[in-house]
Amino acid sequence: MREFLNTDIELLPSINKKKADILKKEINVFTFGDLLEYFPFRYLDKSKFTKIKEIASEENYIQVVGRVVKKELIKGKGQRLIIKLQDSTGVIDLVFFQGIKWINDSFAIGVDYVVFGKPTFFNGIFNFAHPEFETLMSYKRTSIETFFPIYHTSERMKNSFLSSKALAKLSQEVLALAVNRIEETLPQYITKHYNLYTKERALREIHFPKNEESLAKARARLKFEELFFMQLENQVKKHNNKARNKGFVFANVGENFNSFYKTYLPFTLTGAQQRVVKEIRNDMRTGYQMNRLLQGDVGSGKTLVALLCMLIAIDNGFQASIIAPTEILAQQHYNSIKNFLKDMPLNVSLLTGSSKQKERKILLNSLSEGETHILIGTHAILEDSVVFKNLGLAIIDEQHRFGVEQRAKMWAKNSIPPHVLVMTATPIPRTLAMSVYGDLECSVIDELPKGRKPIQTVHFFDKDVLTLFNFMRKQIELGRQIYVVYPLIKESEKMDLKDLMDGYESIVREFPLPKYQISIVHGQMKAEDKDYEMQRFKDGITNIMVATTVIEVGVDVPNATVMVIENAERFGLAQLHQLRGRVGRGQEQSYCILRTKDELSQEGLFRINTMCVTNNGFEIAQADLQLRGPGNIAGTQQSGVMELKIADIVLDEPLMVQVKDLATQIISYDPLLKAEENKPLRDYMVSKHKTADFSQIS
Ligand code: ADP
Ligand code: MG
């Protein structure tokens, strides 16, 4: 039966080869099924007519009813026919450039017509160019549907007689052939329990809804199906990973973990850290390979959780490793982990692209001998020459900059793949995590260490510069330190650098030597100069650090209480949140000051306001998703969210949660979908992946 939906679109009687090619190229419609899944993005409510006087925008398709009062044929170059249509409020021109003779014959003065189209604003007034039209009499006779579907079309489609209205006709044609030939993709127990339309009914109603209610039900059914299959796929992958990949059994929590925990841990874990460590520990002793995502807000203490898990690996005779996306971040992890472990007999090494040949050689040797317990580094770790004796746990920090391939490379570092923990730098909205990382288990640190005072965030315009300087002076008098950060955007690096240098100079003027010390750090400095300046700031010698976003990741200076972000309107939300996370690490009240030019776009203002009203990374991530859509959020490109046709990852969160639970439940009792009642699901998976053995999908 699937055959019907798989029929080549070219076999539709009113489609010729040329049109078929355009449908394929322009909107990826190859089959009947593709056409039926090319959903309208809007509907024209045919029961509603717009008054001519009320036409106010070019945006929407509208319907007007009126009487033809005049016909005018303008000859010569730019020949056109103008039909003047009048209703009780005014007159509008219908303009036709082609088919003039036929159209002229179709309109009769004194007769009422219904006109349908998008108004055009030309020479100061609205008109309709080539609208669709029919007499009011025939309209009343033939118009059964209230809602008429509107589809996205391209210029090329319109030029080839594949307008929105033509697409509606094609859908109608396919639906007429489709009676009892559209296979149900969901098991009956699901459609029954959730009170869903059948697939056939949903497809009919989504194109030609009878009324508001049936449209809502059609959408509900199609969204359900779309999200459900995405989650089913994730659950299948998750199950397959487990079934296929035997994992090391970390049976013990031993000497290293215990002595660190009891003796050297400088503070108590937050409840969330404890819970998450437990989740990970339980995962690592099951005999399956762990694939887990660790999410937590900036400053929630993910590094420490990573360290505790690595100690468990070491206690069980294995090595562990952290890969970070940048050298600065790798260095930072290395420093903080070295520092945590300074009194313990463990070897921690750092490997990055700039490691010297000689050190590298020694390091690789001690790594393959098993003398190195923990290796921290960048992508450099993925190279084939880096061989562990016995890698048991691989931690990937900020995975969204890593691809699937890199993950696979880490797996290959051992005959039995190591346990894998993926840590994200900033939180991801729940629905996005469920789709992008849906094949991973998920742990969330949803609590900040005690004693942190929420950072106060305020918006200053450029003109408020004196207030800003006064505030900075007061904080310095209190003994605090300050960051002043400038955006750095690759394309205009020179201009950005100039901004930075100008800013630096005005700060030096305002905060002169010898009373004040200022550091400056940017990407074009030599590494050792950068380090020198960073170190002076860390040591509290300099009061102000003027920097580009190189400091975005990895600096930890608890005495710094003020983060001034210049040109804040040019940063994205995630980056602003990351930057803000550089302060608020000590006991003192911290501040984030977002400086912008005096005129802001609406979106810019929304971002700044979001930052001012919340410190919660999850809320900020949600706002970011709303603002930019999933396509612009790192990591989503390779996931199914980009292919969603009808569900909305922001608005349909409750549904997403519901279908995820359902999919999880089904796969847990019937992982290979062998049960009779799950046959539709099995068929779907088999046809999607073109293999009967989808236990291999990963
Ligand atoms: P993240 O990587 O999640 O942004 P970090 O691991 O860098 O956060 O931790 C932020 C800071 O909080 C570090 O200085 C760390 O030592 C400290 N920290 C971590 N856990 C705790 C805790 N339970 N109590 C107090 N401070 C903590
Ligand atoms: Mg971190």
Topology (SSEs and partners):
Layout: H1 2-6, H2 17-27, H3 32-36, E1 42-45, E2 62-74, E3 80-86, E4 91-96, H4 100-106, E5 112-117, E6 119-122, E7 125-129, E8 132-135, H5 136-142, E9 147-150, H6 155-159, H7 164-177, H8 188-193, H9 199-207, H10 212-244, H11 255-264, H12 271-284, E10 291-296, H13 302-315, E11 319-323, H14 327-340, E12 348-351, H15 357-369, E13 374-377, E14 391-397, H16 404-411, E15 419-423, H17 430-436, E16 441-445, E17 456-461, H18 465-477, E18 481-486, H19 493-510, E19 518-521, H20 527-538, E20 544-548, E21 560-565, H21 573-580, E22 591-596, H22 602-613, H23 617-628, H24 653-669, H25 679-689
Helix pairs in contact: 9-10, 10-24, 11-13, 12-13, 22-23
Residues 302-303 line the site of magnesium ion.
What does this structure look like?
The structure is a single chain. It contains 25 helices and 22 strands. Strands 6-7-4-3-2-5-8 form a seven-stranded mixed sheet. The protein has a seven-stranded parallel sheet with strand order 12-13-11-14-15-10-16, sandwiched between helices. Strands 17-22-21-18-20-19 form a six-stranded parallel sheet, with helices on both faces. By secondary structure, the protein is α/β, with parallel strands linked by helices. The protein has four domains: 96 residues, Nucleic acid-binding proteins (OB fold (Dihydrolipoamide Acetyltransferase, E2P), Beta Barrel); 64 residues, no CATH class; 191 residues, Rossmann fold; 159 residues, Rossmann fold. The protein is globular and about 95 Å long. Helix 12 runs parallel beside helix 13. It is 41% helix and 17% strand. The longest helix has 33 residues. The two termini are 28 Å apart. Bound molecules: adenosine-5'-diphosphate and magnesium ion (MG). Magnesium ion binds next to helix 13. The site of adenosine-5'-diphosphate (ADP) has 15 residues, from helix 13.
